[in-house]
Every structure is written in C-alpha cells, then in structure tokens.
Write a structure and sequence with these properties.
- By secondary structure, this protein is mainly beta.
- It is built from no helices and 11 strands.
- Helices cover 0% and strands 43% of the residues.
C-alpha cells in the first residue's frame, strides 16, 4: 500500500490508486437525469472493498438521498473525495484514514440497479475529473 502521509493532496495528481477495481461505467461529465455526472461510476462486484485514495479525515458517513450510503474524506487543502452507493460503511465522522485503507463495501444503495461505486473528487466544493487524479484507465478498467 502506498502511503502518501507526508505528501499534500495536490502533489498526488495522476498518482492516486483507484478506490475499487472495476469497469469505468460512466465518465465525469456524462449526461444523467438531472444535469451532468460530477464524478465517475465504477461497476464493481457487490461487497468489494472500497479504499480511501489518500489519507484524511472522514467528514460524512451516512445515507444521503441520491447517493445512498455515502462516505466523504477530507484530505486537507480544500480537497474531498466522495464514495457513494455503498453497501456498508466502515468508518465514522472524525475517523482518520490512511491511503489504501478499507472504508466501505460496494453496494447498490441510493436506488441503483447494479452494484457499483460513485467516486468524486472536489476542490473548494467544485467537482474535478477523477481520471486526471488517479492512475491510468486501461481498456475501460480501473484499479
């Protein structure tokens, strides 16, 4: 497991491990019922481990309409990562997490038809494209 403990989040651009292994189902900016997708949707096996992309502190861990079981990690310097549609959450608000630490399991919460993970990165509350932050996508697969 890579430990980015001493590196500030902005220095990790392009180097982050994906939070789960799977197939990239929907890309950042794809059309959805209301507006555009502000993250990516990764098809993954239900129950698969979801891992934090970097160290930080959990600032939200609860049900949120449209996102199902959602976990949000604050990485400092105004960066957040969001993990939604989970089956289980393993962390609570206030918990510190390391890069690669298990934080949840993939599910279908939030009214999803298929198991998958919604993953988003925000800077100053604005969505940024996770594909630019994580390691290369190969043949439509991540992780």
């Amino acid at each position: 497991v890579l430990d980015h403990k001493n590196k500030p989040f902005p220095k990790l651009k392009g180097k982050l491990a994906w939070p789960v292994k799977g197939r990239l189902l929907k890309k950042f900016g794809s059309a959805k019922k209301a507006g555009r997708l502000d993250g990516v949707l990764i098809a993954a096996r239900e129950g698969s481990m979801v891992r934090s992309v970097s160290h930080g502190r959990v600032v939200f861990a609860d049900w949120l309409r449209g996102y199902g079981l959602l976990l949000i990690v604050d990485h400092g310097e105004k960066y957040l990562s969001l993990y939604a549609f989970n089956e289980n959450l393993y962390k609570e608000v206030g918990d510190w997490v390391s890069a690669g630490e298990s934080i949840a399991t993939v599910g279908m919460s939030g009214g999803q038809q298929k198991a998958g993970l919604y993953f988003s990165i925000r800077k100053n509350g604005k969505p940024v494209n996770p594909i630019r932050w994580c390691r290369a996508v190969k043949n439509g697969r991540v992780g």
